[in-house]
Amino acid sequence: MKTTGTSTNPGDAFTSVFLQRLQAEFERRRQVNARYSLRAFAMHLGVDHSTLSQILRGRRALTARTIERLGARLGLDRDTVAAAVADEARRSPNIAAQTGEVRRLAADTANLLADWYHWAILELVRLRDFVPDSRWIAQVLGITVDEVNVAVARLLHLGLLEMSAPDRWTDRCGDSASNFEDFSRAAVQRLSEQVRALSLAAARDVPPSLREQSTTTIAVRTERIPAALGCIARFRAELLTLLESDAERDDVYQLEIGFFPVTRIQSNKETDDGPSSDEVADSGEES
After folding, report:
1. N or C terminus: which one in the chain shows less Cβ crowding within 10 Å?
2. Stretch (H or E) spanning 30
3. Residue 76 pLDDT exceeds 50
4. Could you tell me how far CA 273 lies from the centroid of its own chain?
């Protein structure tokens, strides 16, 4: 099962100790106060919010002077700051370039695989009655043979699919997870529209005994949202464990879970208190 949820940022392997500490402190403050913005954190540290946005996202190098200044603002002792400066100095001067390249590759891959049938093909390979033929795949997925051939070529190129023989295809992707943060906005929109179309088609064509589709609108207390998201994550993990425990599988399903506000109440609150962290991050990207 290929899921869309949280994933490790490829750039984390290049993240310095001090940057991790900075990111952790910002996250700690947001957990205490969900409305705490990046602008407020920047004001506390005495730096421009766009500069801080770039630092936190690994887009701006940390100099010794910056570490010393921010470390003092964070209340770190001299030894800790000195160790952070030394750690940064030991890092390769090419780290920033490597981080940017990894992120670009991740984004390219995410955009490339934004069409739902790439993941469906990888899941089809696991079926007991899988037929390694483009025409068969096109027929069962309801897409064109050309789309199948292009998708298979992409999967092979990326190393996600292996053909050890014409009749032996292997999914090398594993039970991967893709984070929407890795996708461009256009790719997210395209994938969402495709999945919605699949859902509508299933509601029309698939017997109720083979599907479950429902929607609920409910008034909530926003401080309970983190707990609700935890419940959804546990449910998804339990469901995948249940369904993937079978060695032989005979069909491919799409799991879609949506839980989001239908009002702009919280967005308006953040606007009243200053821009949200995402808005600040966007402005930092453009500066």
Report:
1. C
2. helix 17-32
3. yes
4. 27
C-alpha span between 194 and 205 (Å, rounded) = 16
What does the pLDDT look like over 225-235, one tens digit per residue? 889 988 988 89
Name 257's Cβ contacts closer than 8 Å, sequence gap at least 6.
232, 235, 236
Q: Which residues contact 48 (CB under 8 A, 6 or more apart)?
A: 42
Per the listing, tokens 């600040």 go with 280
Pairing between strand 177-178 and 3-4? Answer: parallel
Q: Which pairing describes strands 161-165 and 3-4: parallel, antiparallel, or unpaired?
A: unpaired
Site of tokens 């790719």: 187
AA identity, residue 241: T
**Does residue 8 surpass a pLDDT of 50?**
no
Q: Which residues pair with 78 in a beta bridge?
A: none
Decide: 5 and 236 in contact? Cβ < 8 Å: yes
Record the tokens describing residue 189, joined without a space. 């929109």
pLDDT of residue 29: 87
Res 94 pLDDT > 60: no
What's the per-residue H, E or C state across 85-147?
HHHHHHCCCCHHHHHHHHHHHHHHHHHHCCCHHHHHHHHHCCCCCCCCCHHHHHHHHCCCHHH
- pLDDT computed for residue 155 by the predictor: 83
Q: Over the Cα atoms of the chain, what is R_g?
A: 23
Could you write out the DSSP letters of every residue in 229-280? HHHHHHHHHHHHHHHTT-S--------------SSSHHHHHHHHHS--HHHH
- Is residue 184 scored above 80 in pLDDT? no
Place of tokens 């984004």: 107
Task: Provide the token pair at 181.
Answer: 């943060």
**Total-model pTM:** 0.45
Q: Which range, of 16-20, 28-32, 139-143, 188-192, averages the lowest pLDDT? A: 188-192
CA gap 76, 284 in Å, rounded:
26
